[in-house]
Amino acid sequence: MTAGPPPEQEPGADRPQREFPTLLEQMGGVQGIVASTIPVAVFVVVNLLFALQAALIAALAAGVAIAIWRVARKQALQPAVSGLFAVGVAAFIAYRTGEARAFYLPGLLFSAALGLAFLVSVLVRWPLAGVIWHGINGDGQSWRRDRRLLRAYTLASLLWTLVFVARVVVQGLLYNADEETWLGVARLAMGYPLVGVALLGTFWAVRRARRAPEPSTP
User: Fold this and answer.
1) 108 and 173 fall within a common domain
2) Is the pLDDT of residue 23 over 50?
3) pLDDT surpassing 60 at residue 54
4) Residue 218 is assigned to a structural domain of this protein
5) Which of 5, 65, 132, 133 is the most exposed, fewest CB within 10 Å of its CB?
C-alpha cells in the first residue's frame, strides 16, 4: 500500500520563518544594526571628553569608516549610506546651532513623525506594521482581508506607536533640560534595543494570527 501525496501546505504557512530574516537583511543584518549605532556612541564619548567640534568630526569619521568597511566586505551599502546621511544632517544642525543637544534633534523629530504615522494608520485601519512588512517582502496588501492578520498588525502598530512615543517623551524631556550626555545615552538605549522588541512583538503577533483557526461563518 503506497502512501498518498503529502497534504498540501496552506499558502503562507511557512512565511513567518522567512519574513523576519528578510526584514533583518533589509536593515543590514545584525552587523549593520550594530554599526549604525557607532557614530552616535562616538559622538557621546568624544563630546563628553573634549568639545562639540571634535565630537562632530569623530562622528562623521566613524560614519565614513563604516561605509568603507562595508564596501570592502562587499556588504549591502544602503544601511551605511542611510546612517551616514543621518549623521551628516545631525552634525550640520549641531554645528549651525553650536549646541551638542541639537545633534539628537533630527532623530527626536523623526520618532515623533513615525509615532504619529503609526497611530493614524491604526485609526484608518491600514496599520503600518502590515503595510511595511508585506511591502518589504513583496507580498502585496491582500492581508487586510484577513481579520486575524488585520488585528495582529493593529496590535503591532500600537506597539510601534508606544516605542516612538516613549522616545519622544523621555528624550524630549532630556532635550529641554539640556542634559546632552544623558540624552545621548537615552538615544542609544532607546534605539535598536526597542526596535528589536517591537520587531519581535510584530513577529509573534503575526505567527499567532496565522496559526489561529479561521473564524466560523454562520
Assistant:
1) yes
2) yes
3) yes
4) no
5) 5
Q: How many domains does the chain have?
A: 2
The type of residue at 136 is I
The CA distance from 102 to 49, in Å, is: 18
Least confident piece of the model among 33-37, 94-98, 105-109: 33-37
Of residues 31 and 192, more confidence is placed in: 192
Q: What letters, b where the CB count within 10 A reaches 16 and e where it falls short, cover 8-31? A: eeeeeeebbeebbeebeeebbeee
Contact between 75 and 67 (Cβ < 8 Å): no
Distances, alpha carbon 20 to alpha carbons 35, 114, 128, 208, in Å: 20, 21, 16, 14
37 & 68 share domain = yes
Asked if residue 38 has pLDDT above 60, the reply is: yes
Supply the pLDDT for residue 74.
Answer: 76
The residue range of the domain holding 52 is 27-98
Residues 108 and 84 in one domain: no
Distance between CA atoms of residues 112 and 164, nearest Å: 6
d(CA 130, CA 152): 9
Residue 124 main-chain phi, psi, to 5 deg = -95, 10
Q: How far apart (Å, rounded) are the C-alpha atoms in residues 133 and 193?
A: 19
The reported pTM is 0.77
Look at residues 53, 71, 98 and tell me which one is the last residue of a structural domain: 98
Domain for residue 183, yes or no?
A: yes
Q: End-to-end CA distance of the chain: give it in Å, rounded.
A: 40
DSSP letter for 146, please: -
Query: If phi over 0 gives left and psi between -120 and 50 gives alpha, with beta otherwise, what is residue 92?
Result: alpha
> Domain check: are 188 and 129 in the same one?
yes
